[in-house]
Design a protein that fits this description.
The complex is a heterodimer of chains A (313) and B (182). In chain A, 36% of the residues lie in helices and 14% in strands. Chain A is an alpha/beta fold and 313 residues long. A 5-stranded parallel sheet of chain A has the order 7-6-5-8-9. Chain A is globular, with a radius of gyration of 20 Å. By secondary structure, chain B is an alpha/beta fold. In chain B, α1 crosses α2. Chain B is globular, with a radius of gyration of 16 Å. Classes of the chains: A alpha/beta (313), B alpha/beta (182). At the A-B interface, α1 and α11 of A face β4 and α3 of B.
């Protein structure tokens, strides 16, 4: 089944390898458009999409908005913090209200895992999960995979280290689900309190140290550490975290030659990643941002578009 | 939709002669090809543009730039069609602005593909002019578009399909008229 046959994009766990490949392949010409002087094609003219973010996010929301605009869709944003949600409106009623305004696609971020799945079951609109609780962030996973494939020429069989707060990270989960479909060896490392106790069941290899995870890795994906976790007692201090788990240039000697460094942003420089690493030649962090727009354009196009009639020349 | 072959209307030699003539016409219309470039509409416009460039090079000893345009994102009927979308890359690696661009396609029918091609081209820059070269004009235009260079005019009914085969994609050169069997 092609991804264009799906109503919703809720996660990478239930997406097939072929569907992921279709999205990544479609993102290649989309990236050409992002890099052009005139970043606009008429494909989705007359289509509406709305971003509804129950949690703050600037980059993901803006990335989706620009992706929609570059494809000529009409994009709108529901600012939840100033909406009727604050007056106690239920999620279901909010979605029903939005649906009656006529957009075809709703792009939603919610602090509760599974919220977009609930919405998808209760609306005829297409639903894109832009991050739900600690579950998944599928378009981040896809843009990471796109960036890796662009640099390494393939995904199959790569060794990928994911570092940091795996327990709470929807980015980590989407990466793991997606990369394992391509036979990658995924290692995770972080404070034991931030590694899910049964993480092996996901198909990944837990490592006790940063060094162990990085050894021989083709890709190092550094996750943002939320400093609130320290207040919650999940690691002793930010200093200790950075001593043990901050990615520094000397770590790269352990990795495979030509290893690349990813980070979903925003970065805590000097906590999970050193500035030399973030700005260094192995960093593809800025490219990830551009690729994010291209991948989201691909997702929107495949979900809202049709095909070319070869006969109608 | 089932198709039944009716006639081969151009064979390899006829296609070669038509492309040679179009190459001469392009050179003449532009008084040389110093400022010209060829842009084929994917898919079969691409190889045809390459072949025209080779013909022009034989005649004029000048190599004109050749690009390929993917117009999938510019169709005005995307959402009314049920086929699986396949977007490919546009590969125009030269400056479009200020050039005489010859758009190349295999068949012109409704004119919507060419219109989409012109829109796509304009987004890459502002050409001095756009000309249109097609191997077959089968009529039934829905837009006011007329090609500048035509290999063969083939009046058709709407129940027919013109199928252009090129050796680069299909392994052989021929143009076939087919009947739609309902």
């Amino acid at each position: 089944m092609g991804f264009d046959q799906r109503k919703d994009l809720l996660g990478l766990r239930d997406l097939g390898r072929e569907e992921i490949e279709q999205i990544l392949d479609t993102a290649i010409p989309m990236k050409d458009i992002v890099q052009r002087e005139i970043k606009k094609v008429p494909t989705l003219r007359g289509k509406g999409l709305i971003t509804v973010f129950y949690e703050n996010s600037t980059r993901t929301r803006t990335s989706f908005e620009l992706a929609g605009k570059y494809l000529s869709a009409d994009t709108s944003n529901l600012a939840v913090s100033t909406s009727s949600v604050q007056k106690g409106e239920t999620l279901r009623d909010t979605i029903k209200t939005i649906e009656m305004m006529g957009p075809q696609v709703i792009i939603m971020r919610h602090s509760m895992s599974g919220a977009p799945h609930y919405v998808a079951r209760n609306t005829s609109m297409r639903v894109i999960n832009a991050g739900d609780g600690t579950n998944e962030h599928p378009t981040q996973g896809l843009l990471d995979m796109f960036t890796i494939r662009e640099h390494k020429g393939r995904l199959d069989g790569l060794k990928v280290a994911i570092l940091g707060d795996i327990l709470h990270s929807r980015v980590a989960r989407s990466n793991i689900y997606g990369l394992l479909k391509f036979g990658c060896e995924v290692r995770v490392a972080g404070p034991p309190t931030l590694i899910p106790p049964d993480v092996e069941r996901l198909g990944v290899k837990p490592c006790f140290t940063l060094e162990e995870a990085i050894r021989g890795a083709d890709v190092i994906n550094v996750l943002r550490i939320q400093k609130e976790r320290q207040q919650a007692g999940l690691f002793p201090s930010v200093d200790e975290y950075s001593n043990l788990y901050m990615l520094r240039p000397d770590h790269l000697r352990l990795a495979a030659p030509g290893a690349i460094v990813l980070h979903p942003g925003p970065m805590n420089r000097g906590v999970e990643i050193s500035s030399e690493m973030a700005d260094g030649p192995r960093s593809v962090i800025n490219e990830q941002v551009m690729n994010g727009v291209a991948v989201r354009m691909a997702v929107l196009f495949l979900m809202m578009g049709g095909g070319r009639d070869e006969a109608a020349s | 939709m089932e198709l039944r072959d009716k006639n081969v209307i151009m064979d390899e030699a006829a296609m070669r002669r038509a492309l040679t003539r179009i190459a001469h016409e392009i050179i003449e219309a532009n008084k040389g090809v110093g400022n010209a470039a060829l842009v084929g509409i994917r898919r079969r416009g691409g190889p045809l543009a390459e072949r025209l460039a080779a013909e022009i090079e034989t005649i004029e000893r000048v190599r004109v730039p050749v690009g390929i345009l993917d117009i999938t994102l510019y169709r005005d009927d995307l959402t009314t069609l049920a086929h699986q979308p396949q977007v490919h890359r546009t590969e125009v690696n030269f400056e479009v602005a200020g050039r005489a661009i010859v758009l190349v396609d295999d068949v012109i029918y409704t004119g919507r593909t060419v219109r989409a091609g012109m829109d796509a081209l304009m987004d890459l820059g502002r050409p001095k002019c756009i000309q249109l070269a097609v191997l077959v004009d089968r009529g039934h235009r829905e837009l006011p578009i007329k090609p500048d260079f035509v290999g063969k005019n083939v009046p058709t009914s709407r129940d027919e399909v013109i199928s252009v085969c090129v050796r680069e994609i299909d392994g052989e050169d021929k143009v076939v008229i087919q009947q739609i069997v309902r």
